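A favour, since you know our structure tokens better than I do. Would you make up a two-line entry for one protein for me to read? Write everything out right here, beneath this request.
=====
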Amino acid sequence: MINIVEQLIQDEGSRSFPYKDSVKGKLTIGHGRNLEDKGISEAEALYMLNNDIADFTKQVRDRFFWFD
């Protein structure tokens, strides 16, 4: 039996960049997150910010061995 997460991923797909929903025309991302009506929570915004900082730090460390 398929669980709800697997079912939603199967139905919605996965997109890393914003797109217009094919049914409602709303700006959407990920596994069907409606950005226009729901947006993101503060926790989600902080999660993304922390990921951005980690990505940037890795890029700098890869380029400048002395950076820490």
